[in-house]
Design brief:
- This protein is of the alpha+beta class and 397 residues long.
- It has helices at 4-7, 40-48, 81-89, 95-114, 124-129, 131-141, 148-158, 172-201, 207-213, 223-254, 256-264, 269-279, 311-314, 349-366, and strands spanning 26-29, 34-37, 53-54, 121-123, 215-216, 219-220, 286-290, 294-296, 299-301, 306-309, 371-372, 379-380, 389-391, 393-395.
- It is built from 14 helices and 14 strands.
- A 5-stranded mixed beta sheet has the order 1-2-10-7-3, with helices on one face. A 3-stranded antiparallel beta sheet has the order 4-14-11. Strands 5-6 form a two-stranded antiparallel ribbon.
- A hairpin with a 4-residue loop joins strand 1 (26-29) and strand 2 (34-37).
- The radius of gyration is 21 Å and the shape is globular.
- The protein starts with a helix and ends with a strand.
């Protein structure tokens, strides 16, 4: 049974959380001027075919965007540029590197929860789910984790818009939202540019120095490419884990049998995490642009059209998942799209899984009783492209 919408006021735009399913896997939205893709096999096809479905979607936007801001944006790149840039940092997220981070992640989780130990309640996001991954990714990059309040303010502004971007109705609200994103992006890149300048003068043993010293086809990356790339790593490197932790705790709270089972058998945690990624997918959608006329689920889509691939809805497709609206941590196999698919599969997926596993183990170890507070409901991220908690008060006594 799907208990989350019954208990909490989840984002009304996320129909899949209410167990609702679209009539067709592909449909055109004339108000937004784009195509919505909801089906699992259709999503897998699109995300795996970069020749027909380009990641460079900014060329379809009705507003002119400074092209330099996209220089280094990994998720907007197609091969061969994407492959070259991704290769520069893939070592930082290798299984060996992530495994070496486990003791540090465990210590951080305990240190962060020590501060909340004297209270009979937690606010999961501010106490653990946000600071833990942002400190880890900041340390990897080589920037101060103590600046995390600044990072959070930027990220909150980036995702404060409640509407989808329209390609046909470009109104003042949309213009303001776009300008906010551009302003925040400039603030973040200016901040990171200072650290890049510092690394050119005084190299360190960190990922930012690695980017400064890296070469692609015999050429060094520009400062703009480095700061843009680092910006993406900083944001994406923590936000998925933050939402994954909150979403998993909510799923367990809404399913007491699963909560009791994982308390008794910690080896069940990986299955819980994977099912949470499917059932309550943090990043709900991925955009693509058709490079040529294509056929998707029997529907002809012209070239130069925007597609919104709703991976969260695809993760509830009954053609792929039996009982898709049931939270089942024993589901095996579980080929969800929570981390995407294809060449843009989340670079930090292994790190996010490890952070979630360690943090949840520490929570279960330290708090024999842990449940949501009925009088203090969680607040959810308002962006339709994200699904997760902004705040999550928990009672520990």
């Amino acid at each position: 049974m799907n208990l989350l919408p019954e208990k909490w006021n989840v984002n009304p735009q996320h129909f899949w959380l209410r167990g609702e399913h679209p009539d067709e896997p592909v449909s055109f939205d004339p108000d937004l001027g784009l195509w919505n893709v909801y089906g699992y096999p259709e999503a897998v096809e699109i995300l795996g075919d970069f020749k027909s479905f380009s990641s460079n979607t900014t060329r379809l936007l009705p507003t002119e965007v400074d092209e330099s801001l996209n220089d280094g944006v990994l998720f907007q790149m197609d091969p061969p540029q994407h492959r070259k840039l991704r290769k520069l940092v893939s070592h930082a997220f290798s299984p060996k590197t992530v495994a070496n981070l486990e003791p540090r992640i465990n210590r951080l989780a305990h240190e962060l929860l020590d501060k909340a130990a004297e209270r009979d309640r937690l606010e999961l996001v501010s106490d653990l789910a946000y600071p833990l991954p942002v400190i880890v990714i900041a340390e990897l990059l080589g920037i101060p984790g103590s600046d995390r309040d600044l990072f959070k303010a930027w990220v909150d502004r980036l995702f404060e818009s409640t509407g989808q971007f329209s390609l046909v109705n470009h109104d003042e609200d949309q213009e303001r939202a776009l300008q906010t994103q551009l302003d925040v992006t400039k603030d973040m890149t200016d901040y990171l540019r200072g650290h890049v300048t510092e690394r050119r003068q005084e190299p360190r043993e960190d990922l930012l120095t690695g980017l400064v010293q890296a070469e692609v086809d015999g050429e060094r990356l520009t400062d703009q490419q480095i700061v843009t790339f680092a910006n993406i790593l900083l944001v994406a490197g923590h936000i998925t884990t933050t939402m994954l932790l909150g979403n998993t705790v909510l799923c367990l709270d809404a399913h007491p049998e699963a909560f009791a089972e994982v308390r008794a058998n910690r080896s069940a945690l990986p299955g819980v995490i994977e099912e949470s990624l499917r059932f309550f997918t943090p990043f709900t959608a991925a955009a693509r642009a058709t490079a040529t006329e294509v056929e998707i689920a029997g529907v002809r889509v012209p070239a130069d059209q925007m597609l919104m691939v709703w991976v969260a809805a695809a993760n509830r497709d009954g053609r792929q998942f039996a009982d898709p609206d049931v939270f089942d941590p024993s589901r095996d196999p579980n080929p969800h799209l929570g981390f995407g698919r294809g060449m843009h599969f989340c670079l930090g997926a292994s790190l996010a899984r490890v952070e979630a596993r360690i943090a949840l183990n520490v929570l279960l170890d330290r708090f024999p009783t842990l449940h949501t507070a009925p009088e203090e409901p969680p607040a959810f991220v308002v962006s339709p492209e994200m699904s997760g908690v902004h705040t999550l008060p928990l009672l520990t006594g």
